[in-house]
Design a protein that fits this description.
The protein has 12 helices and 25 strands. It is α/β, with parallel strands linked by helices and 492 residues long. The chain folds into 2 domains: 291 residues, TIM Barrel (Alpha-Beta Barrel); 100 residues, Translation factors (Elongation Factor Tu (Ef-tu), domain 3). The strands form 5 sheets. Strands 15, 16, 17, 19, 20, 21, 22, 24 and 25 form a 9-stranded antiparallel β-sheet that branches. An 8-stranded parallel beta barrel has the order 3-4-5-6-7-8-9-13, surrounded by 5 helices. Strands 1-2 form a two-stranded antiparallel ribbon. The protein is globular and about 70 Å long. It starts with a strand and ends with a strand.
Length: 492
C-alpha cells in the first residue's frame, strides 16, 4: 500500500509497502476496533462511524503503481470490512439501484458515504457499480441517485451503458469512469473507442487470452488502465448478454436480477416421446451444458503480474463475508510473495487449500490460457462445493462491555490465560462446540489449527456449544487472535 511519511524537510514521501506488512495490518485493526464495539450490528457497521485515522487523499489518477491493484467485492458493509482487513487495495460495491447484483444487500446512501470514508482512512479506494441498462423511465431516478452522490468522494463509477456514461459525465464531471465487463471489450479497437469517450479504466471481457490482453495494452496510452477478473463465477454467455432468465422467470440479467437458470439441471427429450428422457446426462441429476466452471488463477500469478493488467478483480458480491476474506487474503499473499522476489517466487499449495475452503464450482483458468472456441469451461456435474463452516469473527475484548464479561468469567474461578491458551471474544456465525477441530485465519497467513477449548457465554457460564448466530462468546485459543480474525472448522 502507499503510506505518507515525513522527510527531514517535513515534506510527505510516498512509499510502497506490502499489504501484508505488519504495520499495515496494525493500522487496519485499529480501524476495525471501533467497528467491533457493537457486534450485533454487523450489517450496518459503517453507518455513522468514524475511525479516528486521518483521511486519505487518493493518488494521482492514471499513475502506474508498482504492483497491480487487488480489487475485492463488497456486497454489503460486513463484506466491505472483510475485504479491507484481509488486504484489498480497493473494493467495488453498489447502491440500492443500478447495480448488477440487486440481491447482494448493497449500500444505502449514508452507508456509501461511510464506506468511502472508512476505505480512504485506510488508504484504499471505492468504486461504485452503475452497470445496469436503465430504461427511459428510470433516468429521473438515476439523476436523483447521482445528485445524492455529489459529496461522496468515490474514486470511480463503473458503467456499461453509453447513456449512463454521458449522464455521469454531465452530472459529476470530475468523476473517474470505468467501463464494465458488461460492455464485452475484446479488441484494441473497442478499447480505444471507450478511451476516446473519457474512460480511465476498462474492465475487460472474461473471454480473453493473455496474448489478446497484451495487444489491448499495447494499443492504449499508459493512463488508461486495464482491469480483469482473476477469480470467481463465469457466465455461459458474454457477461450479462443473456435473456435466459427473462424467458424462464421474467428476471433480467442485464438489470441486476439474473436467476442463473444456466446453473439449473436439464434433461433432453425427443419431441414425440416427452415421457422418455434421452440419457445424455452428465450425472443422474441431469446435464449441465450451460453451467460454467469458476475461474481460479492462483496458479498463474507470475503471468498475471507481467500481463499489463492494472487491477486484479475478484468476483463475488453475492457470496459470504468468509468468501471475501479468504479469497482476498489468498491472492494478497501470492501477489506480495511475487513482488518481494519475482525470481525466487514459488507457488504455495496452501494457497490452493485456502481457495478450496470457500463455496465454488469446479475450478478452471477461464480463457487466459485457452481459446474459448476450443476449451469450453463447463462443469462436469452439478455439485456445488460448499465452504467449510465459519464459526465466528473475533471482536474487541477491551471495551467496557467485554471487560465486564471477562470479569464474570474470572468470578467463576476461570483464568483468562493458561498454558493451553487465552480467552478471546467472538461473534458466532455457525454452531461451535467445545473440542471442535478449528482454525484461526488472520490477514497475511493461512489457517492455524487448534482444538476449541472451553466456551463461555457473556454471563460467564461455561457452555458445551454456542448454538445461535450472532451470540457473543469467549473461547480459549492457543494462537494469538486479533479483531477481525476468523474462526472456522479445521481440516480432519
Amino acid at each position: 500500500m502507499d503510506g505518507n511519511f515525513l522527510s527531514g524537510a517535513g515534506q510527505p514521501v510516498r512509499l510502497r509497502v506490502s499489504r501484508c506488512d505488519p504495520a499495515r495490518i496494525r493500522r487496519s485493526r485499529r480501524c476495525f476496533l471501533s467497528l467491533s464495539q457493537n457486534p450485533h450490528a454487523q450489517l450496518s457497521l459503517l453507518h455513522g462511524m468514524r475511525t479516528g485515522i486521518n483521511a486519505h487523499d487518493p493518488e494521482p489518477k492514471g499513475r502506474r503503481t508498482a504492483m497491480p491493484e487487488l480489487l475485492s467485492p463488497a456486497g454489503n458493509p460486513e463484506k466491505l470490512k472483510a475485504a479491507l482487513l484481509f488486504g484489498a487495495d480497493a473494493v467495488y460495491l453498489a447502491g440500492q439501484s443500478f447495480g448488477m447484483r440487486s440481491q447482494a444487500g448493497n449500500f444505502t446512501i449514508p452507508e456509501l458515504y461511510d464506506a468511502v470514508e472508512l476505505a480512504h482512512s485506510m488508504g484504499r479506494k471505492v468504486y461504485l457499480t452503475l452497470n445496469t441498462m436503465p430504461r427511459t423511465n428510470e433516468y429521473p431516478a438515476l439523476h436523483r441517485f447521482l445528485d445524492e452522490l455529489r459529496g461522496c468522494r468515490l474514486d470511480a463509477v463503473i458503467v456499461a451503458d453509453l447513456g449512463v456514461l454521458a449522464t455521469v459525465k454531465e452530472m459529476l464531471p470530475d468523476m473517474e469512469i470505468h467501463i464494465s465487463t458488461q460492455a464485452s471489450i475484446i479488441s484494441p479497437a473497442a478499447a480505444r473507442a471507450y478511451a476516446a469517450l473519457g474512460a480511465r479504466r476498462l474492465v475487460l471481457a472474461r473471454e480473453l487470452q493473455f496474448s489478446e490482453i497484451r495487444a489491448i495494452r499495447d494499443a492504449l496510452p499508459r493512463e488508461v488502465e486495464l482491469e480483469a477478473f482473476i477469480h470467481g463465477s463465469m457466465c455461459v454467455s458474454y457477461s450479462g448478454r443473456c435473456l435466459l432468465a427473462n424467458m424462464m422467470n421474467g428476471r433480467d440479467g442485464n438489470r441486476g436480477t439474473c436467476s442463473q437458470p444456466c446453473r439449473w439441471h436439464y434433461t433432453l427429450y425427443e419431441e414425440k416421446r416427452p415421457d422418455f428422457p434421452i440419457p445424455i446426462e452428465q450425472t443422474d441429476l441431469g446435464t449441465f451444458i450451460m453451467s460454467s466452471r469458476d475461474m481460479c488463477m492462483i496458479g498463474h500469478i507470475p503471468e498475471l503480474m507481467e500481463s499489463g493488467i492494472d487491477s486484479f478483480k475478484i468476483e463475488g458480491r453475492m457470496k459470504s463475508a468468509y468468501y471475501t476474506a479468504v479469497v482476498t487474503n489468498t491472492y494478497r499473499m501470492a501477489m506480495d510473495a511475487y513482488t518481494r522476489d519475482p525470481a525466487g517466487y514459488r507457488f504455495d499449495p496452501a494457497w490452493m487449500n485456502e481457495l478450496e475452503s470457500v463455496s465454488h464450482r469446479e475450478y478452471a483458468t477461464g480463457f487466459y490460457l485457452d481459446d474459448p472456441m476450443k476449451q469450453p469451461q463447463l462443469v462436469q456435474g452439478g455439485h456445488y462445493i460448499q465452504e467449510k463452516a465459519y464459526f465466528g469473527t473475533a471482536v474487541a475484548y477491551d471495551t467496557p462491555e467485554a471487560l465486564a464479561e471477562l470479569e464474570a468469567i474470572r468470578a467463576r474461578g476461570v483464568a483468562p490465560v493458561t498454558p493451553s491458551g487465552r480467552l478471546y471474544r467472538f461473534v458466532e456465525k455457525n454452531r461451535v462446540r467445545a473440542a471442535d477441530r478449528a482454525e484461526i485465519l488472520s490477514p497475511g497467513q493461512t489457517g492455524k489449527p487448534f482444538f476449541v477449548g472451553e466456551l463461555y457465554d457473556t454471563t460467564g457460564c461455561i457452555r458445551a456449544s454456542i448454538p445461535h448466530p450472532e451470540m457473543v462468546f469467549w473461547a480459549r485459543v492457543p494462537h494469538r487472535v486479533r479483531v477481525g480474525d476468523i474462526m472456522r472448522i479445521g481440516r480432519s
